[in-house]
Amino acid sequence: MPSVWIPLLIRLAAVAAGGLVAGALFGSVAGALTAAAILLLMLLSHTAHLARLQRWLKAPEQREIPDAWGAWGNVFVDLYRMLRREHKARARIEADLEVFSQAAEASPDGLVFLDNEDHIVWCNRVAEQQLGLRGERDVGLLVTNLIRLPRFAEFIANAREGESLQYRPPDRKGRVFSIEAIRFGRDRKLLVSFDVTQIEKAETVRRDFVANVSHELRTPLTVISGFIEHMVEDPAPDPAESKHQLVMMDEQARRMLHLVDDLLTLSRLEDETQLPREEEFDVRDLIFDISAEGRRLSGGRHSITCEVVPALLKGSREELRSAFSNLATNAVRYTPEGGRILLRWQMREGKGVFSVEDSGIGIPEEHIPRLTERFYRVDRGRSRESGGTGLGLSIVKHILLRHQASLEIASVPGVGSTFSAVFPTWRVTPPQG
Amino acid sequence: MPHSEHLSKQYDSDLEDIRSRVLQMGGLVEAQILAAIECFGSGNYDLMAQVTDTDRRVNSYEIEIDDACAHVIAKRQPAAGDLRLIMAVSKIVTDLERTGDEAEKIARMAKNIYDRGRLQIPRSADVRHAGNLAVAMLRRVLDAMARLDAAEAERIIDEDAAIDDEFRGIVRQLVTFVMEDPRTISTVLDIVWIAKAIERIGDHAKNIAEQVIYIVHGTDVRHTVKEGHGEPDGGPQ
């Protein structure tokens, strides 16, 4: 207060003094006129300052703070300080907000903020990818207009705690996202989405596995128990018939044994604490063994040839023998009579490659990625009648994995298939000389 | 409300409600076509029943939305952009409803094929591919409507030609198939119907795209000759 009033009083006193002096020198009219003139000048100066203040207030950011004297100077300086404080506070809030949005952006889950009517307020990049949104462009749009899954509108209207929706984007086959809607603040919602494709897949594989094992074991058991029932009812049948029945039962029992053996092999191979034995052996011997075995199984219906570059391979001979023989047996099973089968060992860019090439029925492309799944069958009827357990290729894959090798499958339906096991360089000792 | 222009908030919310119901209906039809194509691929009978069931819901959407449009016209006498929206919506809804009928047709034909006990379906992968193209087109046109994206709508109109090409290709291949083995005639005829239904879905999506352009720009692009195409096309037949 005093900073304004005291200078004013001093000035008014000066005006009065000036007026009195002028009055004493030139008469009272001149004194009054002088005082009035000085007052008028003061008023003009104040008005000019007011005008400057007004002009400056219209765009305080862009213009310099105007120069001024006296009380006006103080006002301007105070205003300027206030503005600076505000600037700093805003910068701090903006920085905080920036950190928050960076954190939300860095989240591995998709995040979408919705207002009280489900319009999109903000979303991070993960949400853009997973839910097919377009960030800035989609702000203000109803989220249900963009995600038009029939169940989604209902889901988001309820937004019950702990409830989630499985979203399979129609334009990306096979991907599954889980969406949760969380209420927060005053009737706002947060959508959180995360990728559950892998979890979903593992769950399906596990469910299928249990169902398949039960089914595969049940089939032979049904046959056996049927015959037993028959024998209980008719204890003295004709010996020829009972022989036939026993042979059938034996066959089915063997099939079950075979299946259980394969399952045990698989579970042993899956045990990662037990590493395969590391021994060096001659690949040529092994492949000749397997081709002999293949010829026995084929019984002369196929022409089986070998093409082998001599080499030593490091790994468990027993396991690899089982893997190679599985591949060869498959080729014999799925190649029609008169077909050709070629067992080959070759070096490819320092890597050792064992491959089985057949002129068989081939495999349609869509089945190839799933072939090594347990019990996966391209044609259900066919493979069981040819005597497979449906676990062969799973076993092959596991054995190769244990040897850091990979299984490559190439096939053209009607032309033939090639299964190749590719071994890393360090497992192979190339032919000497 | 993102773009509140009217004094009456209720009016804005009526219009937005209509738009969002059309998009919901679109989502339903989208799911219906996908299910129908899946039926054709897998012969899943439950899914076929579901497609027919969805059609009932699609139809009731059509009636509801038409009713809502009539209400807005009577109560608010919409002008300019709002009027265009209402007019376009009532056409889009018709196209969507017919698209739903096409989906139902696909499911019905698929049932015919599987009832006949055919395991090998000629050109099945090509038909499904064309079907997926058509669904993608519908999905994009609905996105364009939600985003009022006229440029995208124009691109979609151009893409209809690709589905027409697919259709012609499938028919050509089916003809050679029938010539090789005349016993497949009835199955092949059903497949032609399915392919035709897919081609129609593409046409409907194109019509909707034209309406989206009308909503945004107010220009009527139906029955216009596009440069480089040489033939007038579009419009319901």
Fold blueprint:
The complex is a heterodimer of chains A (433) and B (237).
Chain A: H1 2-26, H2 28-58, H3 70-106, E1 110-114, E2 120-123, H4 125-131, H5 135-138, H6 143-146, H7 150-158, E3 164-167, E4 177-184, E5 188-195, H8 197-233, H9 239-270, E6 279-282, H10 283-298, E7 303-308, E8 312-315, H11 317-334, E9 340-348, E10 351-358, H12 380-385, H13 392-402, E11 406-412, E12 416-423, E13 428-429
Parallel strand pairs in A: 7-9
Antiparallel strand pairs in A: 1-2, 1-5, 3-4, 4-5, 6-8, 8-13, 9-10, 10-12, 11-12
Helix pairs in contact in A: 1-2, 8-9, 9-13, 10-11, 11-13
Chain B: H1 9-42, H2 45-76, H3 80-115, H4 124-147, H5 150-180, H6 185-217
Helix pairs in contact in B: 1-2, 1-3, 1-4, 2-3, 3-6, 4-5, 4-6, 5-6
Can you tell me about this structure?
The complex is a heterodimer of chains A (433) and B (237). With 433 residues, chain A is α+β, with helices and mostly antiparallel strands. Chain A has 4 domains: 2-101, no CATH class; 107-195, PAS domain (Beta-Lactamase), CATH 3.30.450; 205-270, Helix Hairpins; 279-429, Heat Shock Protein 90 (2-Layer Sandwich), CATH 3.30.565.10. Chain A has 13 helices and 13 strands. Chain A has helices at residues 2-26, 28-58, 70-106, 125-131, 135-138, 143-146, 150-158, 197-233, 239-270, 283-298, 317-334, 380-385, 392-402; strands at 110-114, 120-123, 164-167, 177-184, 188-195, 279-282, 303-308, 312-315, 340-348, 351-358, 406-412, 416-423, 428-429. In chain A, strands 2-1-5-4-3 form a 5-stranded antiparallel β-sheet. In chain A, a hairpin with a 3-residue loop joins strand 11 (406-412) and strand 12. The radius of gyration of chain A is 44 Å and the shape is elongated. Chain A starts with a helix and ends with a strand. Chain B is mainly α and 237 residues long. Chain B has one domain (9-217): Up-down Bundle (Methane Monooxygenase Hydroxylase, Chain G, domain 1), CATH 1.20.58. Chain B is 80% helix and 0% strand. Chain B is built from 6 helices and no strands. In chain B, helix 2 runs antiparallel to helix 3, helix 3 (80-115) packs antiparallel against helix 6 (185-217) and helix 4 packs parallel to helix 6 (185-217). Chain B is elongated.
